[in-house]
Structure formats: structure tokens, C-alpha cells
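User: Um, what's this?
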Amino acid sequence: MNAQNAIDLPPADARNSAQGSTWHSQMPDDKAMLRAAVELTRDIAAARPGIYWPDMLGSAALGYAALAGAILAGNPVVAVLLGVVASLALYRALLFIHELTHIHKDALPGFRFGWNLLVGVPMLIPSFMYEGVHTQHHARTRYGTVEDPEYLPLALMKPWSLPVFALTAILLPPALLIRSAVLVPLGAIVPPLRTLVWERVSALAINPQYKRRKPEGDFARMVFWQELTCSVWAIGLVAASFAWGWRPLLIALCVVSFTALLNQVRTLVAHLWENDGEAMTVTAQYLDSVNVPPPGFVAAMWAPVGLRYHALHHLLPSMPYHSLAEAHRRLTAHLEEGSTYGKASYPGLAPLLGRLARSTMKVR
């Protein structure tokens, strides 16, 4: 959902105040890097069901088991610890929505349905909220522009924008519950409300200017069934809470809020966010994106399902998450030291957050 309306976009000339950028929007493409990315990875470009299914199912099972434990635990410390485990596991399970937007529809039979049934609908984040949205972020002429639903020039905005951006994620779970339990059913009988809900609160977007187009064809039918299922589930949750108490739902909302916060912090460092709205070359897009490769295992927790290789993902959007580490190894070995490819790699979360904060402090 678009939860960033409280953040003001910077003026058009704000780009000039962010000094020390490592890229320019119209820098020439590094054709050797682009060619190597394609040629060296052809044999690992197929999604493997034997990895996707166990990973997604195991993450969801662990997440729900830990959530149940947090709800049932009598000891507050145990409840908090189990809640953190649940958040991390469900975070990983949820991020398979990113894979769903890129894999070929025939690559993993039943995976979209299974993910929606087990993760998307119970978490009130069905796959339609990302499908048809995220691909616009990868469009050659849209990335970093006002037409990109997933881009804000955060490095060019005021320092207070960063905590606001991160903390608004905490409100996402109750907002999703209200959306599915109240707004969608009301929209079924009030067409203007239905249009507003679809355009403004039916996409996992961060750009406050983004308005979603009306769905059509098979996608519209998929949206209908996912919306219906989510509304029935959300109404059922609220009704059960009236009947048996609100504690389980409140704990679940807290767990999902922490999951949403994790994802929002990851989003803060997925890119450098230094573009002022110009269309960018593929190489410029790559350098405005971030890899956090090994060594270090912590990145696999805050950027799971291959998202620690986010810059590489922008070079190879359809590459399955389980192949990104090998693709990175091959490209690093093939390209010379000091090549363009290595310039998108960073040591970790804290340095990236520090860089972003320093950039905002230079904005007048």
C-alpha cells in the first residue's frame, strides 16, 4: 500500500545539493558487464521447484508455529522471543511475492496459488498487490522517475523523511485489515470508493504520486478472487476477536508490524535513491542499486530470498533467487578488479544507512 503521502518530495533542483554521487543518470552503459551478466548465467536461469517449495513452506510453517507460541506463551520474555522468530520467518515467506512477479507463469506450477493460500491471503498481502506494479520499477524508461511506483529520491529529501519513511510501515498491518474488512466490501456497493481503493491502496508502492490502473482480463479475475478471499478472512478475524478476545489478533498485528518495519528498513538500503526523476541507463540503474555480498550472514536475515543482491537483480530481473549468489561469484571472477560491477557492492546495513543519512543532511 502507498503509505508515504506524509513525505514531501524534494524540489527539482535538490539533486544539485547531493554531492559526491558515484553515478550520473545518462552515463554510458557498460556493455561488457551487461553482456557478461547474460552470457555467464544462462545455465542457472531456471527456477528450481525443489528449492522454492521447501523454502517457502518451511518459512511459513516456522512463522506460524512461532506466532502460535507467542500467542499461547504465558511468559512475556518467551512471547517476545517467539514473536521475533515469527517475524523473521514470515518476513522470508512474504518476500517470495517478489519472486512471483518475475518468474515465468509456467515455471513453478501451483506456486502462486500455494503462496497466496498459505501466506498472501492470511497476511492480507495477496500477490496482485505486487504483480503488475513491481515490473514497472524495472521498466527501462520508468526506473527512478515519477512513474516508478517503488522509487523516492530519499537521498535528496530532508533528514526527518527517513524515520518517517521507516516508521509508517508499523501502521501497515492494521491498514491492511481495515482495507480488506471494511473498504473493499464497501467498495463493492460504492463504485467511487472502489476506484479510490484500487488506485491508492492496492499496491505495495512507496511513491505517493502513483495511481494504479484498472485491472483487465485474466488479471482482473485473479484480483476479484484474491480480494474476495482476503475480505472473508479479514472479516472472520475481526468477528473471532469479538467472540474470543482481541489478544491473539493484537499479537499477530505486532508481529506483522515488525516484519513490515524490517522490510521498510531493507527498502531504505535497496538503492542509493539519488536520482531526481530523469530516465537512467541500465548501468546507472545498477549503480543506484545495492549488493551486500558475503562474507557475513546477517544480510541474509534482513535481505532474504536473494535481496542482498539487489543490484545484480536489476541486471538480471528474471534470475531466480537461489542462483544470484553463483551469478555474483561468476561475474566477480570474470570481470577485472575495479570494474563497474564491483562498485555496487557495500559491506552492510549500517554503512548504507549512514551514507543515506549523510546525503539527506547535505540537502538545503
Observations:
- DSSP finds 16 helices and no strands in the chain.
